[in-house]
Amino acid sequence: MFTLTGGQTVGSGTYWDITSGLRVDMDQEGALPGEKNAKYLKASAVAILLAGPILGLVYIIALPIMGVVTALGLLLRKTLGSVFSLGRDIVSFGWRPAESYLGGKNKKKEAADEAGKPKTR
């Protein structure tokens, strides 16, 4: 493959850092600058200049597609989200793991409710 790493001994030529886009010209054999995680690509300047317009064309073609997919995703989330939310509320059994009720039940409220109820026999 054409991918090389930082610190690797290479021959003369032009090397392009993939992550930062920097160009390294090696006049003679030597080690590429950077650490082991730096990735370099051996390519001529003409190849890099030709790749620019091709990548621009891919971006121009993909941009409307990404817009349509994003809009459809938002639309589906809005429409189906309410349906799934309704289903979740119907199926829910009332247990909330984040609530603890360590203080017990509110006895004052229960007493007030009992006082307001009519007595039946």
Structural summary, described in words:
- The protein is an alpha+beta fold.
- It has a domain at 1-43.
- The protein has helices at residues 45-91, 107-116, and strands at 3-5, 9-10, 13-17, 23-26, 30-31, 39-42.
- The strands form two sheets. The protein has a four-stranded antiparallel sheet with strand order 1-6-3-4, with no helix packed on it. It has a two-stranded antiparallel ribbon with strand order 2-5.
- The longest helix has 47 residues, at 45-91.
- It is elongated and about 100 Å long.
- It starts with a strand and ends in a 5-residue tail after the last helix.
Note poorly predicted spans. none
Distance between the termini: 90 Å
Helix/sheet category: alpha+beta
Order of helices and strands: EEEEEEHH
Instruction: Walk across the major sheet and give the strand order.
Output: 1-6-3-4
Q: How many beta-strand segments?
A: 6
Mean pLDDT comes to 81
What proportion of the residues form beta strands (DSSP E)?
A: 15-25%
Oligomer: single chain
Q: What general form does the structure show?
A: elongated
Major sheet details: 4 strands, antiparallel
Helix and strand topology:
Layout: E1 3-5, E2 9-10, E3 13-17, E4 23-26, E5 30-31, E6 39-42, H1 45-91, H2 107-116
Antiparallel strand pairs: 1-6, 2-5, 3-4, 3-6
